[in-house]
Amino acid sequence: xxxxxxxxxxxxxxxxxxIEKAGEFxxxxxxxxxxxxxxxxxxxxxxxxxxxxxxVFAPGMLSGSAAAISGRISVGCKSPLTGGIKESNAGGxxxxxxxxxxxxxxxxEGQPQGDDLYKIHINKDQxxxxxxxxxKLLDNYPLIDKLKQExxxxxxxxxxxxxxxxxxxxxxxxxxxxxxxxxxxxGRGGVGAVMGSKRIKAIILDDQGCENRQPKDADKxxxxxxxxxxxxxxxxxxxxxxxxxxxNVLTNVLNEAGGYPTRNFKTGQFEDATSISGxxxxxxxxxxxxxxTHGCHRGCVIQCSGIYHDKQGKYLTKQPEYETVWSHxxxxxxxxLDAIATLDYWDDxxxxxxxxxxxAVGVAMEGGLLEFGDSEGAIRLVRDEVGKGTPLGRILGxxxxxxxxxxxxxxxxxxxxxxxxxxxxxxxxxxxxxYATSTQGADHTAGYAVATNIxxxxxxxxxxxxxxxxxxxxxxxxxxxxxxxxxxxxxxxFPILDQPETFQAMLDLLGSFYGIEMTGDDxxxxxxxxxxxxxxxxKKAGFGxxxxxxxxxxxxxxxxxxxxxxxxxxxxxxxxxxxD
Amino acid sequence: xxxxxxxxxxxxxxxxxxxxxxxQQGLWLNVQTGCSITSLLTDQLGITLSYLNxxxxxxxxxxKAIDNPENAYLQEGSTLALSSAMPGLVGTTMRxxxxxxxxRDAITYQSQQPATIGNGRIRIKLFNMIMAEMGAxxxxxxxxxxRQKLNIPFACQNDSFWHTIKAATLGGQxxxxxELQNHLQATDDTQEFFLRVIFxx
Lengths: 580, 201
Fold this sequence. Notes:
The complex is a heterodimer.
Chain A: E1 3-8, E2 16-21, H1 30-41, E3 55-59, E4 73-78, E5 85-90, H2 94-100, E6 103-109, E7 118-122, E8 127-131, H3 140-151, E9 156-159, H4 162-165, E10 173-175, E11 184-186, H5 191-197, E12 200-205, H6 218-234, H7 236-245, H8 250-256, H9 278-287, E13 291-294, E14 305-309, E15 315-318, H10 322-328, H11 337-350, H12 354-366, H13 375-386, H14 391-397, H15 400-406, E16 414-415, E17 418-419, H16 429-437, H17 452-455, H18 469-486, H19 493-498, H20 500-514, H21 520-540, H22 553-556, H23 570-573
Parallel strand pairs in A: 1-6, 7-12
Antiparallel strand pairs in A: 1-2, 3-4, 3-6, 4-5, 7-8, 9-10, 9-12, 10-11, 13-14, 14-15, 16-17
Chain B: E1 4-11, H1 20-25, E2 27-33, H2 37-44, H3 49-54, E3 58-61, E4 64-65, E5 79-83, H4 88-94, E6 118-126, H5 128-141, E7 143-146, H6 147-154, H7 156-159, E8 165-170, E9 173-174, H8 177-186, E10 192-199
Parallel strand pairs in B: 1-10, 5-6
Antiparallel strand pairs in B: 1-8, 2-6, 3-4, 3-5, 7-10, 8-9
């Protein structure tokens, strides 16, 4: 990955491309690359849908190599949803192909005049930017079908649906999976709207004739990769639970804990949770001839995804993730898996963040637009209103906060305008700290369970001391930011948390690939550096301590059944970034 | 007084999955109460200590996360939920005694004095891998449920469950499938059953 592709969509005479040396980014990846470029090149006070914003794609540090589970792609920009810096990442094939093509990043800047819609084709020999207005307002599934006729099935596609073209703040960027289905999405923060604002409908990545990226120390790399894979396969979460049930295995456990936000965060338990649990979903998928075990990209050894068939045994969508089943399920009082899977399909097709969309529908239900539990009504809202860009659809498609204002709803679960994911912060207060303080807005992956016990970021924390919430959240956010830069799937978190030898194997993978010695301290330093520059961007964009807060109802409304409210004081939240 | 119907089924092992919805909702067992979770699982239900320690890493007693099952006590009416290790930050947080346990301090079970020993019913929910691995043992131990809940396994997969029944007894007497179907049809939904299931090839 020795080069960066820069495309100026606003150049006089039409889009212009240039190739730069990757420089400092040759040995970086993912979030480290996107956030550094956005931090350096995007004016924090710019309009996110204007010409000054930039859209940056970056594969991970190990993408395109033989390293297992290294296929996450990061997208960065100023977010039209939060108004702050945004990094959103996804699986699929795009990161591997982009890295094999040799690109450390693609930077898209400027804005074309007029209404033309563009596609970008990249292969080993050239980059072709062309107008293709026949793609206008196609949604992702028909779009990919059409592109396949021209570019075939040996490529990876990155695309936006009609939501991105309409520049909805909940719009996602889709990446195709190994079967070329547009099912893996950089969902959060409205990155699809920024791609739409650049008038780019699709990027076609063709790595035919390219080789895998080669490590500096091949023997050490091979040994590290073997140890890494063994560690993942033997772990009960990565090697058993996720392949068998997918991420939706969490529904029963969260519900039992009373932390499953139900009917727009009114209670912490959903009476029909077992109807939509991962266990029930997996059994249904297998019964209908789908699959409960499937990888989102080649080289994945966890295989946490699946294939969901309809009642006739025909493909409907990929296995809906836990957050999707929650946002369209318990959050909306819906207990019909087929309805939830249908909503997942429409989200993927239109190009929408499933969390933002589900939460927006739930907020609209709170506002009286529909009854909680109205699954047909929810499908109609997404498919017929958002999907067709009606005035009501434009309200919903701009996210939960926008919808809350439109329907005068007081209980709107957002931080920095981004919808909360599927874990009530009153039950798990530590995740509330992360929701409140993350540079990304409310995000369950911003402070993941990443080996802080091994990294000992900022020293040891007594796990049974309640006052450790801030320190734990800080350490998790630092460690997660570093992992987001490697391009490794976050689900490696569990083996590296529990198995020091697997953590070492990960360091050896990175070290042998780049010919350096990596330590835990290096991981921490990288995480801190990226978080600091993201924080700095947000400050310059106008964010202050008052934005690092949960909505007031989390403090004022106790959550049944445990009847607890969010207790972490504001002064403590303000101590999170203590290394700045 | 309510009539109790004593039903025993012998099924092929593959039919355990028909009980998965029921197992997730919770199985009511008559046990000695007042004991610790560890004592219940090992002494009464025959689970090995190593299985408990290594496999059942996430436990809830009446919705409270358990760090030490030896110091958590069951009473009549308690609900115990058992799970293997979970993904995600919150899944990791819920693990017993885990590094991140402080993050869910608000719902952590606080150790109490042992309750008085007695007999009573408790509800046990099994999730994910534990459901597949321990479900048969609980069904073999015997569960209490209303007639209505029997519809969950019996109606599974378009009634194909009936074909997996190798033998059935009602009140200790062997019955044919037709006799069992007739009996169930004639029984009010609220009538109570004691069901024991034996899985055999």
